Amino acid sequence: MAHFQAELRGILTGLAEQGRTMTYRDLAQAANIPPPKTIHKLTLALEEMVRSDHADSLPLLAALAVGRGPEGIPGPGFFQLAASLGLYDGDDRGATAQAFHQAEVIRVFDYWGAGRAGSR
After folding, report:
1. pLDDT band at 116 (very low <50, low <70, confident <90, very high)
2. Where are the domains of the chain?
3. Which of 105, 95, 97 minimizes the C-alpha distance to 81?
4. How far apart are CA 117 and CA 120, in angstroms?
């Protein structure tokens, strides 16, 4: 899975520079993650990225990977992992989850935003 990490980090950093999010499916395709269980492989890699970013006191780049639902937020596992790391205290759906996600996306955009990624 380590080979997915560098590719994913590059894609997500590029999205941050553009101020965009991307669905899990599109991200898996962009990272050329092969079947079977493509989304499962992606989510495992994203979870490892969350742990790494948290350990390095960085905004969570994985927040830019979202489900295809109308809320435009990550799946429940993102919020459950954030809670287990002490970063979030709330449900994995609903207004509290949306507010946490929005705040994290803003942190990601502020940190890795236009022209700043190369200086990290």
Report:
1. low
2. 2-115
3. 97
4. 6
Residues paired with 65 in a beta bridge = 22
Per-residue pLDDT, 120: 44
Instruction: Answer whether 43's CB lies under 8 Å from 5's CB.
Output: no
State whether residue 23 is helix, strand or coil.
strand
CB 7 within 8 A of CB 50: no
Instruction: Give the closest residue to 96 by CA, choosing from 112, 110, 82.
Output: 82
Q: Are 66 and 24 in contact (CB under 8 A)?
A: yes
Give the mean pLDDT of 64-85.
Answer: 96
Proportion of the chain above pLDDT 90, given as a percent = 84
Maximum CA extent, the chain: 36
